[in-house]
Amino acid sequence: MFQKILIANRGEIALRVLRACKELGIQTVVVHSTADADAMHVRLADESVCIGPPPSRDSYLNIHQIVAACEITGADAVHPGYGFLSENAKFADILAAHNITFIGPSGDHIRIMGDKIEAKRTAKRLGIPVVPGSDGAVTEEKEAKRIAAEIGYPVIIKASAGGGGRGMKVARSEADLVVALQTARSEAGAAFGDDAVYIEKYLEKPRHIEVQVFGDGAGRGVHFGERDCSLQRRHQKVWEEAPSPALNAEERAHIGGVCAKAIADLGYSGAGTIEFLYENGEFYFIEMNTRLQVEHPVTEAITGIDLVHEQIRVASGGGLSVRQEDIRFQGHAIECRINAEDPRTFTPSPGTITHFHTPGGLGIRVDSGVYSGYKIPPYYDSLIGKLIVHGRNRVECMMRLRRALDEFVVDGIKTTLPLFRDLVGNADIANGEYDIHWLEKYLAKED
Ligand code: ADP
Q1: Which atom from ligand 1 is nearest to the alpha carbon of 166?
Q2: Whole-number Cα distances in Å, 248 to 225, 239, 255
Q3: How far is CA 258 from CA 124, 274, 370, 446, in A?
């Protein structure tokens, strides 16, 4: 087991990882920018190292400073959290070269899944169902037209190097396609420095369903069920739940089994998420995230398993603590992402939190790094906390969520709490009837 883990992140996830380390009796080092000297994860860590000024590229993305912080403090492993360097293959390789363990998969696996064309090819080879489309990059107009005619319109053109929902164009006819291909390529080139694009069938009303997987790096793979993250705004997840209201036990076991086998065959190590669009009973792979996800607590709630403990165990060579048959699903969990944003316009609302009171009671978990008197710096993302509610079934979970949202107080700044108070009373949400466009349409109506 590791003696000392350096946490290369900030905010709620830094605290989340720190808690797991404490439980496992592992010493913690946190790094922070000058803007985060007062952050909760800095206060609670055994040691902290200031690695630079506020902008992420000078601090949380500064590989040299982080490696130096490991060497100064004698950390033998790094947990990257999510975002920042968590899917940076070069960072994983550099740590390996310094004999520091990266708590995550190999640099090569990060690289494969970071390239969307390569990821899709790999998924297909491993028996994961993918969206019908081109086999690789498409450059010629003629070829694009042929593929689109074959799979049928509408189609979507996506950048191989894309991310965060950027670099995608939908074409509903051949005339659209010609323009979309050109703009997608030039935009991808400008945004990502790589103009490779590929074509897929455009699904009109899918749900976003993702499977939590784990590999032990020695050829064993398991799945921890799925999460439904269809409620999104601008491709950002807002509300996540497990299990998905749309799946039955048979579909769950089937797609879980396919993913677990793929992870085993790949020889993957650590936590991963295989993301699908789901429509008319079919799953279509879109991408794999090679890290812990923001929404991992809903899976923890329904399985009772600490996924960060598992990450640390696997990275230290101790293997997974569970076999597939030990993983049982109990009840229902929902997570609301509470952002420091205006609930109507979604513009960021940094500033000082004058009062912060979190709900409690059975089935309630709040993961947050903020506190009364905390000043939210304007440099980073606006997530200030996650409310995760668990109940024996979805109805009980929703009842409890409504009550927890009523108790939650954040004064001094604007937050997205009012949005969730609206959603929890909505009939479609209560019935679990929503797709990936539902929230945007709902918000447009409210305006
Ligand atoms: P990114 O890495 O940029 O997030 P993804 O491939 O995960 O890109 O796609 C982001 C979002 O774009 C999906 O969640 C979905 O809303 C939409 N999308 C992607 N592919 C398709 C498709 N084939 N049909 C319909 N929507 C799609």
Answers
A1: 3
A2: 12, 20, 11
A3: 11, 11, 39, 40
Q: Does residue 275 sit in the same domain as residue 421?
A: yes
Residue 64 lies in a domain: yes
161 and 231 fall within a common domain:
no
Cα(278)–Cα(282) distance, integer angstroms: 6
Residues 278, 45: Cα–Cα separation, whole Å: 41
SS percent in the chain: helix, strand, coil, step 5: 35, 25, 35
232/236 Cα distance (integer angstroms): 5
Cβ of residue 436 lying under 6 Å from some atom of ligand 1: yes
| Total number of domains in the chain | 3
Full residue range of the structural domain in which residue 191 is found: 132-201
Q: What pLDDT score was predicted for residue 360?
A: 98
28/217 Cα distance (integer angstroms):
25
Same domain, residue pair 250 and 323: yes
- pTM value is 0.96
Q: Whose structure tokens read 């009980």?
A: 396
Phi, psi torsion values for 324, nearest 5 degrees:
-55, -40
Shared domain for 414 and 308, answered yes or no, is: yes
Quote the distance between the C-alpha of residue 431 and its chain's center: 25
Q: What is the mean pLDDT of each run of 10 residues along the chain (447 residues)?
A: 98 98 98 97 97 98 98 98 98 98 98 95 98 93 95 95 82 95 92 92 97 96 98 96 97 97 98 98 97 98 98 97 97 98 94 98 98 96 97 98 98 98 98 98 90
Strand order in the sheet with 155-159: 168-171, 155-159, 197-201
Which residues have CB under 8 Å from 213's CB, separation 6+?
221, 222, 223, 224, 259, 260, 262, 263, 268, 271, 272, 273, 274
Residue type, 315: A
Query: Distance, CA 439 to ligand 1 centroid (Å)?
Result: 16
What is the arrangement of strands in the sheet containing 77-79, beginning at the earlier edge strand?
47-52, 27-33, 4-7, 77-79, 101-102
* Start-to-end Cα distance in the chain: 53
CA of 165 to the centre of ligand 1 (A): 6
Contact 265, 324 (CB under 8 A): no
Kindly state whether residues 336 and 442 are assigned to the same domain.
Answer: yes
Residue type, 103: I
Strands 282-289 and 355-357 come out as: unpaired
Residue 185 domain-assigned?
A: yes
| Residue 291 annotated among the catalytic residues of the structure | yes
Nearest atom in ligand 1 to 275's CA: 7
Tell me what pLDDT residue 161 has. 86
